[in-house]
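User: What would this chain look like folded?
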Amino acid sequence: MKITPEHVVIAIAISWFLTGCNHRVNTETKQADPQNHEHQVSINGLWRVSPETAKKFPHGTLEFVINFSGEASGSTTARGCFLWDDRFFDYWNFESVRVSGNQVVLVDDEGSSYIGTLDENKEMIQGFAYWVDEESTDTSKLDFIREEVLDAGRFFIPYPPGPDGSIKYTYHQPEFIGDQWQTASIFDYVKDTAAFFRMMDRIIRQDFGRLESFLVIIDRKLILEEYFYGYDRTQKHDIHSCTKSVVSLLLGITLAKNNLQDVDQSIFNYFPEYISLKNNENGKITLEQVLTMTSGLDHEDDFEPLDPADQTKQILSLPVVSEPGETFKYNNNSTNLIGGLIYKLENKQADDYAKEVLFNKLGISDFYWEREGGVLQCHSDLHLLPRDMAKIGLLALDNGTWNGEQVVPGEWIAA
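Assistant: Here's the prediction, encoded as structure tokens.
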């Protein structure tokens, strides 16, 4: 496929696990030891961790799902995944699967293992997981029960097979639905059709990892729109840390509006009400360093703010653990501090401000942005439709303009 310099191409691959990070996910599993065929009970089907043994955290619940199959052929295979609050989180890849009698032994690709026992009614597997990392081994109780509600295809089957069991991809031009996207056929631009279908075959085989949606835009026209694992264009996706990029766009808008374009000044110049928290170390931190995650502030974020202002105060109270401006360290507090600045300048949290100055202009109306205790999580948890996520990408490529309007200052995009 040849793309001329005049073309703008956006390829969006949204993953529940890590939006923004491309890595290949191996969802294939190895068969059980062929010498073990003592299958006395049926284990085929989908199993989900019991509510009592799911891993509960302050901000969500981690669950485990296993799909067993192949028992009738004499060797059992298994594929697993993790769910976070009922949404796909990541794959749990098994290197070894052994089912002998009522005993189940799984070993994953990181050396961790699960050993369980299938009960007489064949409705529960009770056992323990032995998690191995570089420094230690942790043991946790994990029981599984048969799952009748979840669709295994949602996690393990990217594209539905035909009646004969084979998978055959068919291209359909994206539908025009009046959401500010013009559409066209991909074959108006791609002449090597064989290469295109080979690419789609590789995507369906998950050669590029788990893709739940795949969109391509050329000449500001949507020419390819495909969804996998049962998704469609009406379902929002958690864009995870891509949320940070949206918050950065919002900051650029409000700084220009308030004539505060100098980001090289101390962060306390923007928050003089917290000057009592300033010391010789954090007084060096600039807004630029907060934006680039080189502030040196501790990344500890285990606090529950009362409101956005309280969150800002708690972040500015954190210790400085490295010299400001010298070391990049991924830090959610940086983006939440930016959210605090937006709140101060606009007297509204970033989700409400986004709707006013960004989303409405791009025709984005169906979105969800998670709040905890009434405080917006600016570092993550914005949920967008794939078509709307593509608008954000094209906006950035077009130097902050949308349909001829300068939505985000061009200088901010170029900086």
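The first strand starts at residue 10 and ends at 13. If you want, I can go into more detail on any region.
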